[in-house]
Amino acid sequence: MTEEAIFNYLEKHQNGKWKSFGTTIESIEWWDGVNPPKKNIIEEGVKVEQKIIDDTKYQRDRAVAYDPIREQLDQIYHDIDGWKAKVKAVKDKYPKPT
Predict the structure, then answer these.
(1) Contact 15/31 with Cβ under 8 angstroms?
(2) Is this structure's pTM higher than 0.70?
(3) Among 21, 35, 46, 56, which has the minimal tally of Cβ within 10 Å of its Cβ?
(4) SS3 state at 30
């Protein structure tokens, strides 16, 4: 479970009810007067968010590996087969999970 998954859960499901958190669910600080959800509810929500993060990692990796759009457009114009080869190399290096 990552801080990113905890943050995503809090933002999506507890927006405005918490003031800070650390690296664990236990570290979440809630605003006064807030009745926080039970720990198992938070854990399940964080697991869902972590799965989303894990399942889309290839997308973030690919986005960094691809050439900037301007360069890709120039590659397509001058050498579409070379562009296809570059795109394929990135897709092969960071495959979509099945």
Answers:
(1) no
(2) yes
(3) 35
(4) strand
Radius of gyration over every alpha carbon of the chain, rounded to an integer in angstroms:
20
Phi, psi of 91 (to 5 degrees): -65, -35
72 residue type, one letter: Q
* Percent of the chain with pLDDT strictly greater than 70: 100
Backbone angles phi, psi at 30, to 5 degrees: -100, 150
Q: What is the DSSP letter of 56?
A: T
| Averaged confidence pLDDT in the chain | 95
| 27 contacts 33 by C-beta, under 8 angstroms | no
User: Tens of pLDDT along 40-69?
Assistant: 999 999 999 999 999 999 999 999 999 999
Number of residues that this document lists for the chain: 98
CA 68 to chain centre: 21
